[in-house]
Amino acid sequence: MNLMSMTGRGTGTAANRHARVEAELSSVNRKQLDVNLALPRFLASFESRIQERIHRALSRGRVSGEIRVAWTGAAPSPGVRVDVGLARAQVAALRAAAKQLGLPDDLQASALLALPEVLVNERGAADLAALWPVVARALAAALAGLQEMRRREGAVLGRDVAARLQRVRRETAAIRKRAPGVAKAYRAALLRRLAAALPAADLAADERLLREIALFADKADITEELVRLDSHLAQAADLLAAGGPVGRPLDFLVQELGREINTIGAKANDVAITRRVVAVKTELERIREQVQNIE
Question: Which domain holds residue 144?
Fold first, then answer.
């Protein structure tokens, strides 16, 4: 059993002479894989490569994180550029707000220093080319830590789901054992009630009574549902044993198990079976909650 949870966290660091890189990743439940990372502006050209590596490692979950870069004193000095388009838009917005609020328009060139992201530190192509291996190592370490945590939690989830499926099997076996006696119990109860009302009648040979009992037995027959339950339970056990990203097929099987046990509860018309059905539904609900966190 090698299941992975969708919840985890990992960090990684790497450095060379010019920079130290820290990567931090965390993930939570999500049906699809959704990656949202905060990167320094100068790492924008690396984003597709970073996304590709995360998608290769993970298949489900909402992944968020950050990559931070600290340049050392040995790093070449960056160039400085003013983002004129961004500055123009921000100045226009500030002047419009000042006009609406009745404030004086006292903006000067020095105010550009306070505007967010207007001054851009640009690194040369050579600096960035040398930085990528450091980023890749930090990212790999963070991914390894994230996967290890997801793997540990996945093992716990797998053991819990396996134990609960075993309880479902025991309850199903008890239902199967009880089922053949339901029609007999119905016949005996019906005969008792009719005998009290019609003491002189030959009830055992009454065709109408026999038809009623046969109709009840047909309606209460749960053989097909039990066969499908066994099939779904066997498939779930196979998925748990195989491991890997099995959250979606497990979720589907739990839904199918719920559908079959609901049908059994509706058809059985027996108090003892109904109690078993309630126990199975309780376990299935707990399994469903656990499966939601399996990759």
Answer: 8-77+124-150
